[in-house]
Structures are given as C-alpha cells and as structure tokens.
Sequence to fold (1700 residues):
Amino acid sequence: MDFAHSPRVTQLQTQVRRFLDDLVLPANAQWQRYAAAGAYPLDVVEPLKRQAQSLGLWNLFLPRLREQEPGTRLTNLEYAPLAEIMGRVAWSSEVFNCSAPDTGNIELLHRFASHAQTERWLAPLLAGEIRSCFAMSEPDVASSDATNIATRIVRERDAYVVNGRKWFITGAAHPNCRLAVVMGCSGEASGAKAHARHTLLLVPMDTPGLTLVRNVPVMQQQAIDGHCELLFQNVRVPVANRLGDEGAGFALAQARLGPGRVHHCMRSIGQCELALELMSARALERRAFGHALGDFANVQDWIAHSRVEIDQARLLVLHAAWRIDTQGATAARIDVSAIKLVAAQLQTRVLDRAMQVFGAMGLTPDTPLAQLWSWGRAMRFLDGPDEVHLRTIARAELARARAEAGSTSPYLQRWMPPHPDDLGT
Amino acid sequence: MDFAHSPRVTQLQTQVRRFLDDLVLPANAQWQRYAAAGAYPLDVVEPLKRQAQSLGLWNLFLPRLREQEPGTRLTNLEYAPLAEIMGRVAWSSEVFNCSAPDTGNIELLHRFASHAQTERWLAPLLAGEIRSCFAMSEPDVASSDATNIATRIVRERDAYVVNGRKWFITGAAHPNCRLAVVMGCSGEASGAKAHARHTLLLVPMDTPGLTLVRNVPVMQQQAIDGHCELLFQNVRVPVANRLGDEGAGFALAQARLGPGRVHHCMRSIGQCELALELMSARALERRAFGHALGDFANVQDWIAHSRVEIDQARLLVLHAAWRIDTQGATAARIDVSAIKLVAAQLQTRVLDRAMQVFGAMGLTPDTPLAQLWSWGRAMRFLDGPDEVHLRTIARAELARARAEAGSTSPYLQRWMPPHPDDLGT
Amino acid sequence: MDFAHSPRVTQLQTQVRRFLDDLVLPANAQWQRYAAAGAYPLDVVEPLKRQAQSLGLWNLFLPRLREQEPGTRLTNLEYAPLAEIMGRVAWSSEVFNCSAPDTGNIELLHRFASHAQTERWLAPLLAGEIRSCFAMSEPDVASSDATNIATRIVRERDAYVVNGRKWFITGAAHPNCRLAVVMGCSGEASGAKAHARHTLLLVPMDTPGLTLVRNVPVMQQQAIDGHCELLFQNVRVPVANRLGDEGAGFALAQARLGPGRVHHCMRSIGQCELALELMSARALERRAFGHALGDFANVQDWIAHSRVEIDQARLLVLHAAWRIDTQGATAARIDVSAIKLVAAQLQTRVLDRAMQVFGAMGLTPDTPLAQLWSWGRAMRFLDGPDEVHLRTIARAELARARAEAGSTSPYLQRWMPPHPDDLGT
Amino acid sequence: MDFAHSPRVTQLQTQVRRFLDDLVLPANAQWQRYAAAGAYPLDVVEPLKRQAQSLGLWNLFLPRLREQEPGTRLTNLEYAPLAEIMGRVAWSSEVFNCSAPDTGNIELLHRFASHAQTERWLAPLLAGEIRSCFAMSEPDVASSDATNIATRIVRERDAYVVNGRKWFITGAAHPNCRLAVVMGCSGEASGAKAHARHTLLLVPMDTPGLTLVRNVPVMQQQAIDGHCELLFQNVRVPVANRLGDEGAGFALAQARLGPGRVHHCMRSIGQCELALELMSARALERRAFGHALGDFANVQDWIAHSRVEIDQARLLVLHAAWRIDTQGATAARIDVSAIKLVAAQLQTRVLDRAMQVFGAMGLTPDTPLAQLWSWGRAMRFLDGPDEVHLRTIARAELARARAEAGSTSPYLQRWMPPHPDDLGT
Fold:
C-alpha cells in the first residue's frame, strides 16, 4: 500500500495545472460572455485544443487496450488526479478532449465499434473534430430503473426505426455534436428478459425525424452545450448503425459507466477544492461584528468538515479507480455506485457552505459557486439518483451478510451471555 | 499509488483474525461475566497473552527505531489493519500487548527514557507484566486547551512534589497498573511560555499521596480498567523520575499522540464494521409489516451510508498512517486531527443506526452496540474534543489560503467578468 | 387563536414548579444515592406524595369523564405544561401520582373497568397505594408491528391461561407494583383479523407462573423501577380479569396512548429545557483558548438551534393535546405519532449538544445529561420506533394526496406551460 | 390557549384560497411566459388587482393604527394564514397589494411619514398605483452586521447628498417602482454611536445620479421585478425627504422588520406545503423497481419529516405573530429572529426533498420547485443570514442564563452528589 503518485503522474499534474492556470483561466471571462450571450465559444476553445494537443495533453482519459492504439496508456488511477484539476474550470475538459459524454462514447466505440463505425465516428471523436451525445434518460418514466426505458426500436428489413422521447441529453446542443448513441427497447415483442431487451444505435444528429425539442434549464441555467430534450419520430438508420448485438444495450451501457463516473467524481472533487479555496479566502477577507468570518467557530467548522470530507471522498474515488484498473469494471460495480453517491452529495454540501460564507454574492454569477452547486445538484440524478446507488450498495452489503453467516453474526451469538432465565424451561 | 496490502500484512491479518475468532471471541462471555461482577478478568486474559506472545502476535504496534530493539518492524500503515481487527472485541488489544494507553507510554519511554527508566518501566511493559496510565486531563479546566492544565509540579531539592486532580485516566484501575505518566505545570513561576511550562513525571501508582478517588462511569458504564479520578496530594518522586526535560512535557505528549490515534481510529473502524455486520444480519432476520427490515429503503440507506462512510474513513486513517511513516508525526499533525475527528463521529453515527435496527434490544447488554456507542461518544472527547480538532484543521486550511493568494483566489478574480457598470466612475 | 395560558394553568405552573424546586430537588441527591445502591427510595418519595396530595397536586393528569368522579378537570392542554415541569426531575411524576405507566392504566380502567375491577385496582392506583405496569412488548418479534405480538391467551373454562415472554416492561420492578395489564393474542385459533385478535388481562404480579426474569439495563443503566423482562408460564387468571371484550385489546391499547404520549412528550420537553439551561450555564463558565465556550459561534449555534427546536416541539405537542381535547384521540392519531417522533428525536439531539458542551463530564453521573440522553434514546423505541411513526405520518399524507387530486396537483398541471414541442404530433 | 382560527379568519382563508385557485392559478402560465420573455406581466396582474380590491381582499396585511385609517383591522396573527395561502403562487401577493417590500415600506410610512410624505407616497402605495423598494444591503461590506453599512449621506444646506452602492434591492426593476427608501450613514463625522448613525431617505427612482446597474441573477434566475444593484452618485434630495430623525434609521428599519418577516415566513410555509403536496402526488404516480415511489420507506420518511417540520414551523410563526400583536415588535425580537431562521432553512430542506422525488424534472422549469428552492436559498440571506439570527438567539439565551443563576444552575448544583473524596482536604 502506497499513497504516493508516480513521477509521471506528478509531472502531468503540474503540466495540466499550469495549462489551466496560464491558458484556460485567463480565457474564462470571454468564455462566460459568449455563453451568456447564447453562443458556443468555439473561438475560445479551438485554439486551446490545438495547444493542448501539441503538448500531448490530449485524450488523457483513454487507457490503451491494444498495442498501436490511441490512448495515453494512463490507468484510471493515473488519470483521476488530472480530471480533478480539469474540474476547476467546468469547460476545460473539452480543451483536453476529455469531455463527457464523449469519453464514454469513445470508450464504447473503442471496444465495440465495427471497422466502419470506427472510421466514421471514433476517428473524428479522438481528433476532437466532432462531439457526441448519449441518449438514454426519458421524461415519461423513472429512468433510475433503466428497464423502464421505453423508446421503441423496431427493425424493418435492413433498417431500424426509432420512436420516443429522451431528455437530459448532455452535449446535444454543442455546435459540433454529430452523433447520438441511442438506447432503446428492441426486444419487448420478442419477450426478452428485462435486462436483455435494449439495443444501442448510432444515430447521426441530422437524421430526419430527430428533433432537438428544447435545451432544458437546470436550476434556471441553460447549459450552453445543453441538457436537451430530443424527439425521435420514425427516425430510420441502417442496421449497420447498431453498436454491438441486439439486446446487449444494457451490458454495453454498464461497461461504459465505470471510468466515466470516476472522471465525473474527480471533477466534482476538483470543484469542491475550488469552493473550499474560495470560501477560505472569503473567510479571511470578510469581516462582521469586529472579526474576520474565519475567526467564527461555525465558519471554521464548515471549512474543517469540508476538508476532511473532500479528502475522504478523493481517496474513495482513487480506490475505485484502482479497483477498475486491477480487477475490472464489473468487480468495481459497487465501488462505482459508492463514489457516484458520495461525490454528488459532497458537492452540494461543500458548495452550499461556500455560498453561505459568501453571503448573497454566493448566489450570483459573480462567483462560480451557484453554477457549481447546480451542477452538483444535477449530478445527484445524472447516471442514477442517489437512491438507486444507495439501494445498490445496501443490497450488496445484505447479500454479503446473507452469504456469510446465515442471519446471525457469531459476534452476536457469542456476545450474548446465556439467558439468565434458562431455568430448564 | 497502490491500494494493495503487502503479503506480510495480509498474512498477519489472517492470523490476528483467526486468533480473535477462535480464541478471543469464545472467551468473551466469561470476560463479560467477570467484568459485570467487578473483577478484572485476569484468568481470561493471561493465558491468551501467553498464546499470542508465543505466536509472535505481540507488541505489533511498535515500530523498530534502532537495530536489535524490540518491535515488530511493522510500519504504522502495516499495523493499522491489525488494529482494526482487534477493535472487534474491545478487550482483545491487551491480549496482543497493544492496549492504550500502554502503547503510547511504551513509545514515549522507547524514545525518551533514561537507561534506568527503561529497565524499570519499559522492559516490564514490553513483557506485558505491568500496565500503565497517562494522567493529563483535569476536571476543573477545559483540558481541550492543554495550556489550561493546572496540576502543579514543584521542585524541592532532588525531588518533585505534585499536587492536583486528574480524571478520565484510562487504565488506572487495572490490577496490574504500576505507573502513571503525569503531566503537570512546572514552569508557571519561571514565566515560561504556555507550551513550554509542562513536565512529564513517572509516578509509581503506590506513591504516598496518590489516591484513586473513583472510577468514573461513562454513559452509566464503569469500565473495568477504569476512567479514573486521581488525586495527587504532595506526591513526591525523585528528580530522576522526570521523563525528558523540564518544560518539554507538551512536545513529548504530542509526539506520543500520532500513532496512538491511528490505533484508536482503526479500532473504531473495526467496531463500525462489526456494527454494520450485526445491523445487516438483523435486517435480514427481523420482520415487520410483512417484510424483512432489510427490504425497507430507509434501513437500506443506513446500511449503504454506513458502508461508504466506513470505507472513506478507513482510507483516511491509512493515509494518515502512511504520512506518519513517510513524513513524520509532525508533518502529519493535521491528518491526525482529521482522523480523530472523523472516526469518533463515525462511530456514534454507525452505532446509532445499528441500535435503531435492533430496536430496544440494541440498547441492552444483549448486543455489544450500546457499549460501543458509549465508547464512541467518549472518543469524541478523549484525546481532544471534536471542536478542538475542527479548529486545528480549519486554522491550517486558512493559513494555507492566506499563504497562497493573499486573500482573493485567482479563480475568483478571473471568474468575475469586469463589472458591467464600469462607466468610468 | 390564542397562545396565552389560562390563569388557572399559570397558577398551577407556579405551584408545581415551586414544589419541584423547593421540595423535590433538595431530595434528589438522596434519591440518587438510594437508587445507586439498588434500593427503591420509598423513604424519599412517600412523604413528598403526601405533601403533594395535601396541596391538591395529585392525579393532575386525569380528565374528569363524568360528574362526581376523580380527576382534576384539567384538559390535556392544561395538564401538558405541568408535565413539562415534572420532566425536570425524572422521578418527580410519582410524587404527583402522575407516573407512566400508571397514568395510562388508570385511564384504561377509568373508562373500561368493571365495578369490581374499579374497586380492586383503580381505587388504590388513584390513591397512590399501588403501582402497575403494562406488558405489551416482546423480545422475539418486532413489536413495532403490534400484530406480531405472540403471547398466547387461551381460555380454559372460567379462566385464561397466559404463556409468553415480555420485555421492556416499565415499572415492573417497583416495590409497590401489584398489577400487570397484559396484552396477548387470544384469537389466532378463531381466525380473527390481525387487529381483532388481542385481549387485555389484569394479572396480579404475584400470580403463580409470572416471573420477573431480569431488570434489563438500557444504555448500561438499570432503572430502579425497571424495564423488565417478564416470563409468563401457564399464568392463570379468572375470566373476570379480562379488561373489555375479547379481541378488543388493540383498540383499548390505542385509546390509552394519546394522552400518555402527550405526557411523555411534555416531560421530554422539560428535560430538553433543563439541558439547554445547563448547557448555557456551562457555556458561560467554561473557558478555552481565552474565551468562554459561549463566545464560540458553534456553541452558540447549538444553543440557538436547541431553543428554536424546543419551542417548535412544545407548540406541536400542545396543539396535539388541544386536538385530543376538542376532537378526540382518534382524530388526533397522526398528531400523536408526530409528537412522539419529534420529542424523542429532539431529546437525543439537544442532550447530545449539552453533553458536548460539558466535555467528558457530560458523560458522567455528575450531571443528569447522560441519563436523560439515554432515556431519550429509549424513547425512540418505547411506544413505537421512529420508523413506525414516520410511516404512519407519511401514509396519512399520501392518503390525503390521493383523495384530493387523483395523482396530479392542479398546482403542477397549471404550472407547466404547454410543451413547446406541441407540433401537432 | 386555543388553536382554532376565528370565523372571520376561516372565511377569509376560504376567500383567498378560492381567489388563488380560480383566478390566479389559471393566469400563471401566461405570467410565466411574460416573465420568461423579460416583460413584466402588468396585463396579467392589473385586472386581478382590481378584482381583489373589489372583493375587499386588499392591503390585508395592514393593521389599523388609528380610527378612520386604512387597513383591514386584521392582526398579524389573523393575516398570517392568508399570507401562507398567497405563498403558493409567488407573484400573487401583488394582486392583493401585499407584496414585499411595499408592505414594510407602507408600515414605515404609516407610522413615521410626514403629512406631505403620506400624500405623495403612502396614498399611491395603498392604492396599488406605484411600487417601492428598500435599499439597505451593500456589496462591499457584510450587511449582516448592519453597522457596516457605508453609503454616505451628507447634508448640504437643505438637501442630502447620497453616494454609495446597494445590491439585492428587491423590486427595483418593477415597472411601477417609483420610490427607494434608502438607508445610509449620516453620522460618521459627528461621532454618533454605531446604531445611531444611520438615516432613512425617500429617494424617487428617477432622481439624477441614481442608476440601476443590473438586475442580479440569483441561482441563475433573474427575478422579473429584480434583485438589483443600484449606484448612487451624488444623488441629491431635499431634507424634507428624510423619514424620521437623523440617526434614527436603524430603529425605524428594525420596527419595519417584525411583521414583514412574519409575512415572508408564512409565504415560505405555504410554499413548503405546496412542495409537500407536489412531492406526495409525484410519489403516488411515479414507479420504479415495481413500486410507486411512495411505497419506499426513504421517500415516506421525507414526506413525514416535511409534514412535522412544516407544522412545527407554522406554529412558531403564528406564535411570533401573536407576540407581536400582544406584546409589541420589540418584545418579539428574538421570536422574529427564530422564525426567520426556521422558515428559510425549512424551505430549502423541504424543497430539496421534493426535487429529489421528482428526479431530474424537479430541477427544470416544468415544476415550480427549482424556483422555490432558489428563493428559499436567497431567504437564508435576505433580512439577515442564518448565522446572524443564530447569534441573536444564542446571545439572548445566554443572557437569560446569566441573569438567572449566575453561572451554575441549581439543577446542576443539587444534582451532583457531594464529592466522594471529600476527605477534609
């Protein structure tokens, strides 16, 4: 057991942090102005992408599966601290071609795409030429129980026809978004089991019948790249656009989630660190009743609790990344539920404290806090609401208890002194 | 970065766990009966000590400072998971000669004792022949601020005379307790600074004038080895009984705390694991309203939160142990405050949930839960109340913020768009 | 709507408070000494009972049902603030003949006893000559779901035969306890519905076959009047000892609960007030880091939160008492669940804060805090665990929602703007 | 003590609720569309105002001070339940001419305005012809400590000159806003005491030098009537525009706060009731894992806790209103701090639960929840942050403890048995 990062990771941390501080942060005000005006800030992002690529800070998230493949050869455990740094400026991931949902889609295609699919979609995604989205959640059912997903995929000869409504589809409003990876139910008629009914399709964004209905505001904020509502009305794609097998959609989507959640969680932790940094600075500067806010023991408690909660959460996420790397995503399934739960709840908790230290200013766009809180709040649903993860973790724990000892722990059986009333009854 | 334990640690974990399950646990009912009757269960403990010693499971906590010294050569990081196992049966540490406060006292003597002190006290402590206590807390002042400590140590020629009252002195009621390491104020007259006024003395328990006033119950429970109130009335010891220099008492006591807190925290985590195990078993077995308790989502939430909180806390403690090992106790000072805070609060939280799942039975001696909760509650004061640790952590965080950026983070300065009202005012 | 107490209540408050401060409190140390020695302090209690009775401070809890009956003619709303005062010294209720479980048993007998039962049991209970207990909870089933109660009552000619095990039977160890009101299942064979199977019997404590197995410690504390485990082995009582009808046990027990819970809750609130008073006094007196504890903002927050939580809870309990008085116990069923939930959780919360302000001393018998916390913790199970009350309240709320609007609130239907994608699809 | 509303209040509750359901709610979608388009919905509001006025549902908040004055003669306690109903649709208060900050300004003018001020400002405010704002908070200081307020008011002959920056000035962007009541520091030079330095001025919104800098978004939402930043650059008003005496600003502002906070709190409670209603409806309708969400015990717990917390908070607010009515605003100062604290924290808590039950939809504009949460979050600062109210409440409690018993409660002194070690030392 060793908690030290390798020299390579330490060096990359320095490089990414310097890139962020020296190049991304100074561009932030301009990025925000574009976004506030409703225009995607390609002018800001594209030059930074080229710089990052030229420095090799590109596709850092992608483990190499086979020789002579793209990818940095970083493990998830090695990439994680870099994602944490990127979290400090929400839009910076795109600069390094490490944005969700592209990262997950790239992994999916990397592992399961046909040759033609690789050429058409994976190559330009890896080059940062196009963006993509992943269309799973639906407004009319509780997507927390993914077997509820109702968008219908019907085969008609050599094509699939898609009908349904999706929402909270992140990135669909990005001007470069060309591809929707769509999860739908293809097997209801065939009577396949609940988890073997769903299929993934690669649907070009310009396919007729696919409408971007609206970019849904989240806590009053409309993300510039969108959390969109998409309507599929008789959307028709060739059978060759199917990713993996019919009915394998669920398994594929699951495989996609592990590393992606590690990235999300580490970015959240980076955002919590930023919030703690801002809250501390504010506590030093702001005065009331004759003292700096940082002299008040309740503000100190918020700062201290934030510090120890962030440190604990980071270790948990790194541990989950290590398990994915060493034992595989399936073995790490519960760990990944745990970090998703912990990081999202942490973010709203730490950000809320920071907003409180800033006073009313903390709710305004004059600090990044309100946006970050709102994103954390959304994270408590995206990739599954807290309650689903709690349920998953608890059921695993109970299953373990059941397997181990029948129902009574020997530590309880042996604890109890023989009943004092054993009178031979 | 690597989260795997070494093969040696893995093997020791197996050995200690097996010893606990096969030898300690079966003796627990008898131990409890003795203790309930007010008699220290030496008959139970001594044979187990000999067995543990013969297996080399002895003084496991003690790092080796120099060649040909006692100690297992285990680092704190390596010992930590063994302490976790010992936590499962509160009295088992003594079997492995790893009990607080002996462990801390042994470390103190190991590092600072004169040759004569080593022979007289350290040797029998390492052999498990005697026990010891550490007399710091006082009833009449807030010991959380240790500069408050008021017991007076006055030098009279070649002797020190001690007057004062101590309480919550753990272990002082153990039948083998022979030594009190006493912290007192020797420098008030000399005008030494607040942190350079205190001195440590080695006071034999049978010194005239030292009275064990009472064994104070904690949450209605009288620990069999005691959280005692001690009265020092003109207690006189030779100057040679001073440990370290005059005025160095504070520095020495601090040095003593790091590893000892790691041990406490890991034992707490072991107790939380036990509570989670019992709560899960109970949730499977107990039924209400037509369902096992484990089917109810609120009970599931308690189990899941306990799981992720325990896992996070364990990683934090292991990380602190690693820092002590690699960077020294002083560098790890804040980490040690953090784990002390986290572990004590975790224990009452997890234990409270477990008691709730057990219903009224959870409050009775029929399970170990009530005792463990009470111990966790006491831990929120022992070695410093939560609030002192929160304060320590917050002040370190604020100091870092102050050092870094003056008062305003560049991430805030650069976040803020230029004020839209910059009208040339 | 008027929040002022009537002059009569105000006067009684003054009288009871003065009695408590001038007569009960000075006797407390002696009471505690007796209890610590395991002897019930009749010598302390009996003279005080006579004094209280002579002042008319007797059976204050008992509303008058009919003319020329015992009872103070106080409503529940009028008695409630007096119960709050009694809460300040746990054992004082007995002095005013207002102790649980006698109060509930007296109400039961008052309403449902036959003439013979009234003479034999109710009269001496009202006179304070005997005490009683109520035997419902069982160790082997989740009594939270009362249909689980398994003690069997079998009729054999003109007698009932009782077999089963009860526990947490409060008051059974009181030296004057003469009567157990026993709930058992009489109707399993007859196939009666789950809530119509149980019957109440009046069982003299000295009936052969009834054994007091043990006085179960709660959080390590053995109540001097007991939370007892009782074993019924072929306990035989005449049919005339049945209270109410066969199968009516549930309905009767429910009827008994409303006022009794108001009393419990108000006493809890009195205990929370006492804790807040002690915590404030300690915060003024104790110093650390150069300040009184009460100068620290986190301690201030605990005090302030305690104040507003106590004030809210008191109003809720008074409101429930008012509803019982004006609309009857059945109409107030949900209110009574709510106050039981709120008061028990409040007590552990406020007491825990108070213990934290006192430091380690807060856990010792040197303050009443540890005992009061433990009682509060027990209250989270007695008369039903929190979870049962939460469930009851939630189901009532959901039933109301279902009744009102089908499933969608007009405030939601009308909130939603017509979908912007209503493209005539 | 009586918890029943009077017949008059009950009838007004019915009337207001019917008005809201039948007239306001149907107009809501249109109101929202206007607002989303950035236009103040006067077309929607004005006809409703005329209807409300014709029904006598007008200025309901205003107690009558003297004979033949405006005002409904409703007490604060009587108006409170009507404010609760208005809370259900945020903009409805305006319809009844009961909006903040007009209500507070009207009260101020009602009590302290000169005849000329009454004619010019109070009359049109009471008629609903104009709106007003109250300019106190400032961006550059912690306004939580109001002595920090720095806007300078300097007298030059028969005029005052104002310089400073204000923000979070609610209502300043309303198209009918004609008047700013401005708090500034007039007494720094004169050396007046901290609480006697501030003066209130009536400043017409069109005074030269007064600029509405921006309408500050709160949690990404720009209120249509604004939380505005105002810049005062050499703003000059006649001395006759002073409200009350020089240096009396603080006392006047305080007087204004009591009833206004009761209104805010009751509206918050109405919003919490709405959230609970929506959450319950959603819990009945939405299904996951084979059950309605309302069948899950964690969702039930949220519903039940919300119910009991809302009920407690309402009683506390009503009690505070009663105290204002019966004992005056000054006597109720702590009560008013308490309700402000409780209601704002309640709102974010209940709304957060409701959002969680709705899933991602709860964060979108498809329900009122996100807006209501955001408003609740802002309420945790408006009229003073939580921490200031906690401090106020705690200091009052500590002052009471100090006054009562010196530092040690008799309940502690008498609790403690004489020390067992009283050995005559």
In short: Chain A touches chain C at residues 211, 213-214, 229, 231, 233, 296-301, 420-421, 425 (CB under 8 Å).
